[in-house]
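Q: what does this look like with adenosine-5'-triphosphate bound?
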Amino acid sequence: MDAIDINGVTKRYGSETALDGLDLTVERGEIYGFLGPNGAGKSTTINLILDFIRPTDGEVRVFDLDAQSESLEIRERTGILPEGAELYDRLTGRQHVEFAIESKAADDDPDALLERVGIADAAEKKAGGYSKGMSQRLMLATALVGDPDLLILDEPSTGLDPNGAREMREIIREEKSRGATVFFSSHVLGQVEAVCDRVGILRDGDLIAEDTVEGLRDSMPTQTQLRVTLDQSPDASSAVIDAVEALDGVSSVTPDGRTLVVACESDAKTRVLQTIEDHDVTVEDFETGESSLEELFVAYTSDAKDEMGVVQ
Ligand SMILES: Nc1ncnc2c1ncn2[C@@H]1O[C@H](COP(=O)(O)OP(=O)(O)OP(=O)(O)O)[C@@H](O)[C@H]1O
C-alpha cells in the first residue's frame, strides 16, 4: 500500500490551472522531496492531500483512504508543518504542544518534544516572542505529536539557521527510521539532496521529473561543470568570457578569480578550452564536476529544458 497516491488530479482556480492531470505516488517509509519553482503547484498538492481544497478532477488517496470522505482518519495519522507558522502569540511553547497532544488524544511528553526540536529553554515563553526559527521548531514539535505515519512538511527549513537545518534533517531521518513516511516541499535544494530517497520536480502543475537524485543526474549525463584555471584573471567584460558564452552547448560562464566556471554539455568542453587559448589566455588547469542538484533543478525548470531534451 502506498502512502500517497495522486491519480490524474487537475485543480483549476477559475481559468488558472494549478495542477494538470498530476500522477504522483509516495511509497510508505520513504522521504520524498517535492521541488518546484514558485507557483508550480506544491501547496495546492499538499492542500489536496489534506482535503483543505478539492480537486476539479482526479483522485487523491492516503494510506488507501479517500482524501475527501476519509480526511479525518488521514489527518489523525498525519503530522503537518504548514508553510508559515501559525502560532498563538499569547500561548507558550509548551501550551502549543499540549494543545496538539490533546487534539490528537496522544500521550507524548511535551517537554521531551520541545527538547527534541531544541527549544526546551523557551517552553515557558509566549510564542509571540519567538524568532522565526523558534516558531518553525515549535511547529515541527506539534507535527511530531503522536508519532504520525505521515509527515507533511511544507518548506520546513524556512527561518532556520544552518544548525537548525541540520537538526531538522536529523529529525527527518529519525522519523524515517521509526517507519514514518516524509513528504516535504522545498526550494532549499541542499536539504532535499541531503535527505531524500526520491525527488519529484513540479513545473506548471506537471511532474516533469521524478527519480533519486542520482537518477536525475544520470538522465542528464551531458550536463557538466567545467572549472578552468587561467594564467590571468579575466576581466568580467573580457572578450574571452563573451566568446565562451556564445559557444554552442554552453549555458553559463561565471568568473571566480583566475577560474572560469562553465556550465556546459560534455561535448562542448574541448571547444571551451580551444576558445580560451584562441584569446591568448593560457589554461593552467581544468577539472570537470558533477552537476549539483541546484543546477539540475535550474535545467529542469527553466525553458532551456525543452531544448535539452530532458526526459519527461
Ligand atoms: N486560491 C487560489 N486562487 C487562485 N489561484 C490560485 C490559488 N491558489 C493557488 N493559485 C494558483 O495556482 C498556481 C499554483 O500555486 P501553488 O501555491 O500551489 O504553488 P507553489 O508551488 O506552492 O508555489 P510557492 O512555492 O510560491 O508556494 C499558481 O499559479 C497560483 O497563482
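Residues 13, 16, 18, 36, 38-44 surround adenosine-5'-triphosphate (CB under 6 Å). Residues 35 and 187 are 6 Å apart (CA to CA).
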